[in-house]
Amino acid sequence: MKQFTHAWLAFMATKRLEDAVASSELSPKFKPADRVYADGLINWFKSNKDGVIRGAWYPDSLIKDNGNSHVLKFEPCDEIAEKLRQLPKTYLIGEHSGKSPARHRNFRRADKDDNLPDRCEALTQSAVDHLKVQESEERGSAVSPTDNQVALWLFMLSHYVADAHVPFHCDSRQFSEGVDIHGKMEKEWDKEVRKFYMIDEKNERFFYDPRGYPLMEPGKEQKFESSYLKKVGDRLSRRAYTESVDGSFGTGNRNVREFMSAVCQHSYLLSHYFVPEQYDHSNIKPKDDWKSLGGLSFEELSVAVLTDAIDSIARVWFRAWRRYAEWMEEPETVTPQRSSLSS
Hints:
The structure is a single chain. It is built from 13 helices and four strands. The protein is mainly α and 343 residues long. Strands 1-2 form a two-stranded antiparallel sheet. Strands 3-4 form a two-stranded antiparallel ribbon. The chain is globular.
């Protein structure tokens, strides 16, 4: 994904949580404490939102660990190698992956060094640890992380979580060479975000609406009705947000690493549904319509990928924030000098 797509997803993940907190229908199982925790995360994000576009882009622009940490690629095999993990029941990539031709074949990891799920787990742990240290240290302490540092970890985390949903990040076939349909797909998503939202390019930030989210370009409202970005919002507005041990990450996924492993597996299956197995970079021609090679249209794939990526960022961020918030409530926790929970 490109820079503004990543930033837009992070904003929409926060909006997803805010809408869930405000609606008992969207979050029927939200406990009162969960609503308080979500409010703390939402308020914290809005206080640091100007750094999203830069922070969420650092994995590509600065760190550049694309070779292994942005991917977890799979390939078909004859032996039993990978057990398919479950996703949350509402996930569209899970719905589509069940129709994938690759669903009926065994698969295995193509490169043992790919580590996207581990990267997500590590950044989650780092964000929680930084929040804990920040609360335990006196203001101005030399070892106390700043809000900017914590924000960077969370914004970077959103990048890797989003990348797990990109089908070509999980398929060992080569799609970045030849006609580069991998690059074309990601450019299309970024183009769609840029088309409808006002961006302050000089300062690398969105202009904001009254709620603090990316502002729609004046006069684009009617055209937006036919955009797949509108369909993404519509899907989320009807999808219940589940926050439970078994529900939020999918049954059997105990942590972020296992959840992201599940996402990558289903993204691999989605890739084979969108692009049939006989294709790779060498036999897709410039004259081919790369948006309709298989059983899934580009718009259907885009709605599934972007909708579920938003939901996953919200779930991973919230799970991390709740761990920090619950630690704050433990009797032995040092009384903080300043509380991010109430900021």
